[in-house]
Specification:
The two termini are about 20 Å apart. The protein has one domain: Glutaredoxin. The chain has a 4-stranded mixed sheet, with helices on both faces. By secondary structure, it is an alpha+beta fold. The protein contains 9 helices and 4 strands. About 50% of the residues lie in helices and about 10% in strands. β3 and β4 form a beta hairpin.
């Protein structure tokens, strides 16, 4: 029976950025027993309106909460931008593109997109921002850009969003464990690694008869 760990997130989700070291540790410690796969959730996918001051204030509070809880680094100059549209679909689609092209580097690419947005104040709604990130993982940007803009990858990205909604995911990060065709929730929302590690160990030892999220 095949075991898998499924990470559902969005590279432009602040709590997912705070979760980066946790999912890294899960991948490092358990990938040989339960390979990690990434599904994109589309936190603010297809938003088409500029951020208002109230919206910025609300988002900033989330960033500050994540920073306090996890130590994740944020560049608050982001909030000096005028007219920014917080559409997370392109960032998600970039990850889906890499997942298609070179799946073994998808987690590191996902985290590099988050780092670019949160720590470096880069605009991850435009494809050129992904050029150095793709090249860092050995991907030719022209090929990346062609696939990134294809209708197939746009549809695959939308399918990720639909899967997330279909199984009832309402927030990110969410981590599921999969045993054969059975799914169970490990965590909905941020949890430190020291909490999740024993739950994963129990699941791998005892199976889904022991609910990993209990």
């Amino acid at each position: 029976m095949t075991n898998k760990i499924i990470y559902i997130g969005d590279p432009m989700c602040s709590w997912c950025w705070g979760f980066a070291s946790v999912i890294d540790s899960i991948h490092k410690d358990f990938n040989h027993e339960a390979p990690l796969s990434i599904i994109l959730g589309g936190l603010h996918a297809y938003d088409d309106f500029p951020m208002s001051n109230n919206y910025k204030t609300n988002i900033r509070h989330h960033w500050e909460d994540v920073n306090r809880a996890t130590g994740a680094v944020f560049d608050y100059r982001f909030f000096d931008r005028d007219g920014f549209i917080l559409d997370t679909e392109p960032a998600c689609r970039a990850v889906v593109t890499i997942r298609k092209m070179k799946p073994n580097v998808v987690l590191s690419f996902y985290e590099s997109v988050s780092r670019s947005f949160y720590s470096e104040n880069k605009n991850t709604t435009v494809s050129n921002t992904f050029k150095p990130l793709a090249e860092q993982v050995g991907i030719d940007f022209k090929e990346f850009d062609q696939i990134f803009n294809s209708s197939q990858i746009k549809d695959e990205t939308k399918s990720d969003f639909q899967f997330s909604k279909k199984i009832g995911v309402t927030g990110f990060p969410t981590v599921l464990v999969k045993e054969g065709e059975k799914l169970a929730l490990l965590t909905a929302g941020y949890q430190p690694y020291q909490t999740l590690k024993p739950a994963i160990e129990d699941w791998l030892k005892n199976g889904l008869s022991e609910h990993p999220g209990d």
